[in-house]
Structures are given as structure tokens and as C-alpha cells.
Amino acid sequence: MWEWLVELDQQIFRYINGSYLSRFDAFWLFVTRLETWLPLYITFFILLIVKLPKRLNYIASLTVIIATLTAIGITDLVKNAVARLRPNNEPILLDSINILQRPENFSFWSGHTAVSVTVSLLMYLILSKYKKSKMWLLFFIWPLLFATSRIFVGVHYPLDVLVGALVGLFLGVTFYKLLMALFNRLQHST
């Protein structure tokens, strides 16, 4: 069963990585860089400061940071435990895929995806609770592009991205619930 899933994952990876959209190498390299999204990260923290009540914005900002570090830490532990080679390091794929980056660490699951989904979901849940707006849905453009870029640059399989997104959803909801419990406790203590 596992071998069949790995083979299917590699076939889907080859298809996506070799599709027409892979011809936009410069775009995917731009999208996959962390520093590209720095203005968004800054905007997230500014929104928390501006949109949330004074005392809560610091706690919310700290929660986003802790959620990010948690996603990174769990991802690193799992990557080293599973030790799945990235597509760019897989000998049977090297001659048949588009490789734009060559990280040496392991593949499963995508940390870029887990972190971006965690943060985007957490920001969406926090901000939509305090200021109703459909605009917050734009936050999900970031993880969608970020996660997709990981396949196009040749460093993650679709399953890595899918599981990273599921982990991000879980962590985003979990940290939101913890934050709301803390907010409620603080409001009842004053």
C-alpha cells in the first residue's frame, strides 16, 4: 500500500512539476522565497495591533509567533523521523523533473505549507472575530501560492504539501481555541 501511494505521489508530482505552469520558473522562485512575503508578515502584525483591543493584540501577536515556532519545530521532528528524500534528491526523478532549488534536508511534510496555513488560518480566525470582513479571505492566497511553489521548484511532493496543509489547519484551529480561551479568561478576570 505504501509503495503504491509513494508511486502515485511521484507520478502526480511529475505531472504538476512538468506542466505548463512550470515554465514560469522566475515567478515560482520569487513566490517560494520567505523574504518575498516579509511585507505580508509585517502587515499581519500591524493588523493585530490596529484591529484588536489594546491588551489583546500583544497576546495575539505572541500566539502567532508561538504557533509559527510550533509548526516549524514539529515539522523538523517529523522530517527527520520519516527521512523521505525530496524530489530534487531522488535519483530516479533527477532526469525527469524541473529542479530550481536543492535543499538537502528531508521532504515530508512541507514546512513552508504548514507554517503558512497555520499563520493564515490563525490570522483569519482572529481578525474575522473582531472585524467582520470578507477581505480576510485574501490571506489564503499566500499559502496557496507558497505551497504550490514548492512542487514547481522541485522540492516537495503533492502529499508533502497536502499533509503540511492539514497540519497547518490543525495548528491554526488549535492555537485559535487556546487564544480565545485565554481572551475569555482575561475578560472575566477584569
From TrEMBL:
<feature type="domain" description="Phosphatidic acid phosphatase type 2/haloperoxidase">
    <location>
        <begin position="60"/>
        <end position="176"/>
    </location>
</feature>
<protein>
    <submittedName>
        <fullName>Phosphatase PAP2 family protein</fullName>
    </submittedName>
</protein>
<keyword id="KW-1133">Transmembrane helix</keyword>
<dbReference type="GO" id="GO:0042392">
    <property type="term" value="F:sphingosine-1-phosphate phosphatase activity"/>
</dbReference>
<keyword id="KW-0472">Membrane</keyword>
<dbReference type="Pfam" id="PF01569">
    <property type="entry name" value="PAP2"/>
</dbReference>
<feature type="transmembrane region" description="Helical">
    <location>
        <begin position="56"/>
        <end position="75"/>
    </location>
</feature>
<keyword id="KW-0812">Transmembrane</keyword>
<feature type="transmembrane region" description="Helical">
    <location>
        <begin position="106"/>
        <end position="127"/>
    </location>
</feature>
<dbReference type="InterPro" id="IPR000326">
    <property type="entry name" value="PAP2/HPO"/>
</dbReference>
<feature type="transmembrane region" description="Helical">
    <location>
        <begin position="161"/>
        <end position="183"/>
    </location>
</feature>
<dbReference type="InterPro" id="IPR036938">
    <property type="entry name" value="PAP2/HPO_sf"/>
</dbReference>
<feature type="transmembrane region" description="Helical">
    <location>
        <begin position="136"/>
        <end position="155"/>
    </location>
</feature>
<feature type="transmembrane region" description="Helical">
    <location>
        <begin position="27"/>
        <end position="49"/>
    </location>
</feature>
